[in-house]
């Protein structure tokens, strides 16, 4: 019975934060005595963020709200390569073991390939088969219809849709109709409030680790905007990526081997860890002598 309620604390936290966020946005609207346009809201948030009467944490919260207003699903989703998903013919017994191992309460279900998502399996829906022979039941018997959104969808709009439709997970689709990743209500709320950790979350290392005043160790998953907070603005034309790994792919044109070094603007990137499919970890340096070839 315990696993059926494994997401209940997170549900309560998520519901509270959703309500808080709605009240917070409403508060800003009433402060200005009018229903603001998106440009007005952005201007008001910038003004409040720069106010000397706010402490550092309040300014950070306001800045997070601005990023939430402007953000898209691709920036916050769990990318396809990191998704946990099951095939629709997976036996109930195997699904239960996977849910316990990963600590997930909702898992996407696919047919043939992960580009063909056909449902979402909820752990709590297993209860109806409590006294049933698990070997005769597959995930397809209790999965729910999936909810699809484009990876370019505004995350503020998606939060409203999650509330209206009473769903907590969506499948992000790329421009070709393939699966780009998944996004949950927790992913959206973390843009505002930071990491929401429950007892099932594994402790994750920071995406960016400061080594010294001129050196960082950076996960390839880290966003370009996060890196710029440490190294200053980067001038990037025709940006079709959001992460450090995407930037390096664009610069190099292939998957580099470990220890390969590349210079970009005022930075030097060294590949610390990579596999056959992607870059994993890099060292970023600045104010260093250029490499002489």
TrEMBL record:
* Matches recorded under CDD domains: CBS_pair_CorC_HlyC_assoc
* Intracellular or extracellular location(s): Cell membrane
Q: Identify the residues that the record assigns to the CBS domain, covering every copy.
A: 77-137, 142-202
Q: What is its main location?
A: membrane
Its transmembrane ranges are 12-29
- Tell me the membrane topology, using the record's own terms: Multi-pass membrane protein
Task: Supply the alphabetized keyword list.
Answer: CBS domain, Cell membrane, Membrane, Repeat, Transmembrane, Transmembrane helix
* Family matches, as SMART domains: CorC_HlyC
One GO cellular component term: plasma membrane
GO MF terms listed in the record are: flavin adenine dinucleotide binding
InterPro entries in alphabetical order: CBS_dom, CBS_dom_sf, FAD-bd_PCMH-like_sf, FAD-bd_PCMH_sub2, Ion_transp-like_CBS, Transptr-assoc_dom
Q: Which family does it belong to?
A: Belongs to the UPF0053 family.
Which named protein is this? CBS domain containing protein
Q: Which organism is it from?
A: Vecturithrix granuli
């Amino acid at each position: 019975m315990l696993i059926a309620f494994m997401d209940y604390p997170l549900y309560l936290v998520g519901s509270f934060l959703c309500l808080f966020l709605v009240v917070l946005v409403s508060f800003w609207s009433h402060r200005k005595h009018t229903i603001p346009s998106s440009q007005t809201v952005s201007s008001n948030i910038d003004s409040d963020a720069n106010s000397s009467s706010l402490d550092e944490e309040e300014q950070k919260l306001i800045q997070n709200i601005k990023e939430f207003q402007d953000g898209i699903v691709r920036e916050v989703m769990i990318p396809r390569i990191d998704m946990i998903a099951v095939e629709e013919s997976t036996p109930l017994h195997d699904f239960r073991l996977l849910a316990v191992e990963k600590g997930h309460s909702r898992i996407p279900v696919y047919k043939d390939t992960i580009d063909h998502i056909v449902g979402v399996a909820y752990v709590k829906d297993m209860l109806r088969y409590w006294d049933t022979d698990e070997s005769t039941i597959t995930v397809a018997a209790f999965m729910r219809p999936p909810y699809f959104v484009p990876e370019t969808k505004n995350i503020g709009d998606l939060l409203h849709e999650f509330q209206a439709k009473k769903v907590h997970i969506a499948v992000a689709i790329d421009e070709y109709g393939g699966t780009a990743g998944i996004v949950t209500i927790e992913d959206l709320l973390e843009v505002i409030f930071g990491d929401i950790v429950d007892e099932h979350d594994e402790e994750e290392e920071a995406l960016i680790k400061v080594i010294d005043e001129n050196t960082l160790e950076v996960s390839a998953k880290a966003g370009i905007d996060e890196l710029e907070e440490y190294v200053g603005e980067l001038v990037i034309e025709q940006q079709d990526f959001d992460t450090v790994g995407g930037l390096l792919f664009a610069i190099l044109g292939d998957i580099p081997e470990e220890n390969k070094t590349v210079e970009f603007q005022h930075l030097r990137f060294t590949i610390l860890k990579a596999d056959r499919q992607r870059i994993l970890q890099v060292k970023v340096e600045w104010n260093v002598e250029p490499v002489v070839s």
